[in-house]
Amino acid sequence: MTFEEILNELAEISASLEKATLPLEESIAVYGKGLDLAKQAIATLKESKGKITLLTDELGKLADTAFEVEDDD
């Protein structure tokens, strides 16, 4: 499930719980599903943050290397 799909599903769950038309047992099950989806979303965000950090670090190293060019004067 993509991050966007998770967000859409969470929005649907939130809307159904806000309506308060589900029986209690079903509401609890839907709430539990929402918690599981929220955990997935958080894990995806943490993974994405890690990837962005690595890419940013690589870019910083490249920029530092570019400025270490020797002058032959």
Q: Which keywords apply here?
A:
single chain, 73 residues, mainly alpha
**What percentage of residues falls in helices of 4 or more residues?**
over 70%
Number of helices: 2
For the termini, the CA-CA separation is 58 Å
Radius of gyration over C-alpha positions, nearest whole angstrom: 22 Å
Count every beta strand, where a strand is a DSSP E run of 2 or more residues.
0
**Sheet with the most strands?**
none
Structural class: mainly alpha
Please tell me the overall pLDDT: 91
Order of helices and strands: HH
- Name the poorly predicted regions: none
Strand content: under 5%
Number of domains: 1
Q: Tell the overall outline.
A: rod-shaped
Give a nutshell description of this structure.
By secondary structure, the chain is mainly alpha-helical. It contains 2 helices and no strands.
Describe this structure in words.
It is a single chain. This protein has one domain (3-64). The mean pLDDT is 91. The chain has helices at 3-19, 24-66. Helix 1 (3-19) runs antiparallel to helix 2 (24-66). It contains 2 helices and no strands. The longest helix is centred in the middle third of the chain and has 43 residues, at 24-66. 82% of the residues lie in helices and 0% in strands. The protein is mostly helical and 73 residues long.
